[in-house]
Amino acid sequence: MQLWVGLGNPGPQYAMNRHNVGFMAADAIAEVHGFTPPAKKFQGWVQEGRIGAQKILLLKPATYMNESGRAIRAAMDFYKLPVEDVTVFHDELDLAPFKVKVKRGGGAAGQNGIRSAIAHAGADFRRVRIGIGHPGHKDRVTGYVLGNYGKAEIEDLSDLLGAIAGEAEWLAKGDDARFMNDIALRLHQEP
């Protein structure tokens, strides 16, 4: 079993924030792959399903971004999962909008949900970094990250989420390079 975690903040007021793109990715994966309806568990919402031969547990922590690691740890402990079986989907300021990069391990790069995940689970989980771009000046970061996607971005966002869900089988198989490459091909981006 793999634990896939979408990071975001709970509540309708945050639903379209750039910071919630991890939640959006989890929702897209659950819908495309026919996962179970959400159930309250592990301080969040859990959906179960299969992608290819892999059983996947999708988790959206209800703890707010800064405490996401508590929900991740609770699910890991319950299923006795090592950190290597955890994948976290999150927004990334340092990537161009709608770019996707996968890496394992590393630091938090200022992302509080990742900081919390590292504190509770260790650093060696896989990260699916979803680019939101940078607003240009550090003083504008908070408002930008917690701001909604603009109307002009919705079609690109929808295409991105569809590509992530559509290529999720490569992620489930552990072929991160193919996952990234096939998303770039779908979106007509340079890999």
TrEMBL record:
Keywords of this entry: Cytoplasm, Hydrolase, RNA-binding, tRNA-binding
Active-site residues, Swiss-Prot/TrEMBL: H19
A single BP term in Gene Ontology: rescue of stalled ribosome
Record site feature (Discriminates between blocked and unblocked aminoacyl-tRNA), residues: N9
Cellular location(s): Cytoplasm
Positions of the record's site feature: Stabilizes the basic form of H active site to accept a proton: D91
GO molecular function, a single term: peptidyl-tRNA hydrolase activity
Function, in words: Hydrolyzes ribosome-free peptidyl-tRNAs (with 1 or more amino acids incorporated), which drop off the ribosome during protein synthesis, or as a result of ribosome stalling. Catalyzes the release of premature peptidyl moieties from peptidyl-tRNA molecules trapped in stalled 50S ribosomal subunits, and thus maintains levels of free tRNAs and 50S ribosomes.
PANTHER family documented for this protein: PEPTIDYL-TRNA HYDROLASE
NCBIfam families: pth
Name assigned to this protein: Peptidyl-tRNA hydrolase
Organism: Sphingomonas koreensis
